[in-house]
What does this fold into?
Amino acid sequence: MYKLIATTLLAVFLFSCGAKKKDLIVGKWQEIETGSAISEYKSDGTYFITFDDGKTEEGKYRVEGNTLY
It folds into this structure.
């Protein structure tokens, strides 16, 4: 059992190291402290934000190094 867990953790670590930074943002994100917005970033470089007052925003993003524009 220990070998299975160790192998699984190693595989997860190795696959996570290979992820490109631009792929790490892809998905849905919710603000934890305020809960005022849900942001969705897509792999095609577009984003969509829904605020809790019903307003929305959409556009394009890019990642350069450690910075999201």
